[in-house]
Amino acid sequence: MIYTEDKICQIKKPLKLKSGEVLESYNLTYETHGVLSKNSNNAVLVCHALNASHHIAGIRKTTKDLGWWDNMIGPGKPIDTDSFFVIGVNNIGSCFGSTGPASINPKTGKPYGSDFPLLTVEDWVNSQAVFADFLGIKKFVAIIGGSLGGMQVLQWSISFPDRLENAIIIASTARLTAQNIAFNEIARRAIITDKSFHGGDYYSENTFPNIGLSIARMLAHITYLSQDGMTEKFGRNLQEKKDYSFSYEIDFQIESYLRYQGEKFSHKFDANSYLLITRVLDYFDPAGEANGDLVKALKVVKAKFLLISFTSDWRFSPSHSKELVSALLENNVQVSYSEIKSEYGHDSFLLEDPGYHELIRVFFSNML
Amino acid sequence: MIYTEDKICQIKKPLKLKSGEVLESYNLTYETHGVLSKNSNNAVLVCHALNASHHIAGIRKTTKDLGWWDNMIGPGKPIDTDSFFVIGVNNIGSCFGSTGPASINPKTGKPYGSDFPLLTVEDWVNSQAVFADFLGIKKFVAIIGGSLGGMQVLQWSISFPDRLENAIIIASTARLTAQNIAFNEIARRAIITDKSFHGGDYYSENTFPNIGLSIARMLAHITYLSQDGMTEKFGRNLQEKKDYSFSYEIDFQIESYLRYQGEKFSHKFDANSYLLITRVLDYFDPAGEANGDLVKALKVVKAKFLLISFTSDWRFSPSHSKELVSALLENNVQVSYSEIKSEYGHDSFLLEDPGYHELIRVFFSNML
Questions:
Q1: Which strands form A164-170's sheet, in the order they lie side by side?
Q2: Contacts of B215 in chain A (CB under 8 A)
């Protein structure tokens, strides 16, 4: 069993943000697997999605938590840490060790709360580039990520085309649809209207908008699963009862499951981080930077690409990936694309599908 | 222009509910169009969906509100009130005149609130049958409804097979999926956890859980529209601004639209009614009454059926209608089915699609 521990990179160089604001200094919490080669040419950066962290694989010594992509990353696994030096880094604005809204604002000595600046995928990628400098990595052999992680990969290929050889984008998109934004907006309303939110400065009130965050998470969870997958797993099964309660208590297993997921999440995630990261998602739109022309936005990219989507993913359906593939091909970029048959919806990218894992394994083997 | 007015039917006969509780007396508010024939053989009952009411067509004298299905019902319209006597009735438990949670409980002299009993589609249909007796209608020439309205039509055909000749079920289902229930559960959590909910007895507190109800409505609204329809209508368009605000204020048109819809709805609908009706939806499952066997559940039906679904409806997708059509056909019931191409999602049943309206027109003409 691989044990991992948090490492911290303290960055004193101010980060100029897309909003115009500046983050004077910040910490990035990270985790590494494998050994960096002498010429630093085997480094893989793993970008995480909304709820995840730098803890990508192995087990935390303290909490015994398994990394969120442990089925993918490790010795002999598709991203083989016997060959690659694999890095997970917690994004700023998140809540797993890197500087975020719950961190102490050095200017006030209190948690940032509502003073924490809004970020973008570009800002994240810029901070990750500073982090790569800190590690002495000029160029990643690959940057990989699913969902929001995939957006970071895409942004890397645009912002720093010379700093990655391979870009692997899974279950992701070049921009959110109106429906995607709509779900995010409802999640934010649930959090912001929670009576314990206090305009984002709940830390000093010794309270937490866990009801709103729980609702936000329940909602997101529906978009991670497929309609058929939910039917298969829960159907109309009742939760430990034989008949309806004729009340608003839990009757169906799906109600119990969602409430549990919401409740659990609301105790491990920061509500301000949730707000911030949904906005990062909304704002990502490289085509928007090029007058809506995705082909033009991708003109600068140099990496080789692997894109993967999943048939039952309705959050970022295969059409999102296909649009990106087309735009890359129009730029004569080398792209492989695979649409994996799966009934597990958006969550498929986290699961251990043999065909999917084999695809990643082969793509990485070819880098050696 | 047709002006309409509310009529009230006071029912003193106790209604035994599926839950075991009894509603001792209740009012049904209704509206009629056209003239009942001498032998009462031209009566059409229109069953309404979650948000709607008995106000099906024409204009309210007082409020100038147009009926929700005015494009379908009226002189010369697909359901032609020159030939048919068309009745809309507000369901009990709702909030547009019929007895519901906001009504005065005769036992206490105060609004029912949390004391209002939970209902089912069967209960509604039973109350509508008492109402039909009151009107002197032994048999409807047709009962029609979309979405939750369609569930009532189906239940009529099971509960009172001799009291309707034609059953028209549009954009509906024989039972909710786990995903459908999941959305309802989140809507209920938003309402119940609103600090102004007071366990359902907010009337006496002079407050109203409009924040929770607004969130519930925003969420439901997403399920009424199709992904493509939302992209077509809103895309990533910004709301009266040229750049992101870098805040949680409204940036995108879709955010503005949803907030407006939620806000508007929260001022015209009762939160307890919303809770109750989502539970009515969850509980509907005629197959469940027959050990999960839909074919068996439909053994008693005698009506001729028309079922209609819409291609982009992902709330109750065409597969729901097809399952019902198959089960009806296995019982040798006469069924017509049409899947209408539409990009407007679940809402399509309310819109004026020429092919859809023509289908209804022809089906009704054949009854004459």
A1: A7-11, A26-33, A85-89, A43-47, A140-146, A164-170, A304-310, A335-340
A2: 186, 189-190, 193, 215
